[in-house]
Amino acid sequence: NAGVMQNPRHLVRRRGQEARLRCSPMKGHSHVYWYRQLPEEGLKFMVYLQKENIIDESGMPKERFSAEFPKEGPSILRIQQVVRGDSAAYFCASSFRDRGISGNTIYFGEGSWLTVV
Amino acid sequence: DAKTTQPNSMESNEEEPVHLPCNHSTISGTDYIHWYRQLPSQGPEYVIHGLTSNVNNRMASLAIAEDRKSSTLILHRATLRDAAVYYCILRDRGSTLGRLYFGRGTQLTVWP
């Protein structure tokens, strides 16, 4: 059972370009979460999606950032017109349920490292 | 979610037990205590969670104080692979599973 798959692992973009980060959740998981980790900082929640629905985007910057989780295919985190401050590690996680506790946890991917030059 | 306080860093020698403390004096009755760890250049990894009783799994043990205002993650025999940042996180039972508040955590260094 493959884990959460993220690609690309490393991405370099020039200022003003677009970055697209992809996340395939674990098999059977329909809940996807994106986190950002800036250099020397902790992880910050960005957005929570289910298939074709954004459930909680309270952690998303108001501009340039968007996320989707289509009916088919991976979840995409899209950053338009990237700036140097967007350089960070972006982690995706998935879960089978969205709440409850017994046996439930979330599983993280290995991250996508974005560098803006 | 209630806040947790952890030491910035701790050190251990290989093969020795490690006790990682976490204070959560404002914990509510419905808050679960979760521990995750993050190895260098990797995503966080679930370690263990509990509510009131001590918990054991293949990775670690979780000791929860009787008043639940603190807890301790116990690694019984540290290995070099256990060097990571350990995060103690409170999550309300009714809140979304994946909406976690990560603090700065404790950087564990393991010496050979």
Main beta sheet of chain A:
7 strands, mixed
- What is the string of helix and strand elements of chain A? EEEEEEEEEEE
DSSP summary: helix tally of chain A: 0
Q: Note the run of SSEs of chain B as H and E.
A: EEEEEEEEE
Distance between the termini of chain B: 37 Å
The end-to-end span of chain A amounts to 36 Å
Shape of chain A: globular
Radius of gyration of CA atoms of chain B, rounded to a whole number: 13 Å
Form type of chain B: globular
Number of helices of chain B: 0
Largest sheet of chain B: 5 strands, mixed
Number of strands of chain B: 9
Determine the most extensive contact between two protein chains.
Answer: A-B, 28 and 25 residues
Number of strands of chain A: 11
The stretches of 5 or more residues of chain A where confidence is low (pLDDT under 50) are: none
Key terms:
heterodimer; A: 117 residues; 7-stranded mixed sheet; 11 strands; B: 112 residues; 5-stranded mixed sheet; 0% helix; globular
Task: Summarize this entry quickly.
The complex is a heterodimer of chains A (117) and B (112). Chain A has 117 residues and is mainly beta.
Describe the 3D structure.
Chain A has 117 residues and is mostly beta strands. Helix content of chain A is 0%, strand content 48%. Chain A is built from no helices and 11 strands. In chain A, strands 2, 4, 5, 6, 9, 10 and 11 form a 7-stranded mixed sheet that branches. Chain A has a 4-stranded antiparallel sheet with strand order 1-3-8-7, with no helix packed on it. In chain A, strand 5 (43-50) and strand 6 form a beta hairpin. Chain B is an all-beta fold. In chain B, the strands form 2 sheets. In chain B, strands 1-9-8-3-4 form a 5-stranded mixed sheet, with no helix packed on it. Chain B has a 4-stranded antiparallel sheet with strand order 2-7-6-5, with no helix packed on it. In chain B, strand 3 and strand 4 form a beta hairpin. Chain B is globular and about 40 Å long. The mean pLDDT of chain B is 92. Classes of the chains: A mainly beta (117), B mainly beta (112). Chain A binds chain B through residues 4, 31, 33, 35, 42-45, 48, 55-56, 91, 93-95, 97-101, 104-111, and chain B through 32, 34, 38, 41-46, 49, 51, 87, 93-105.
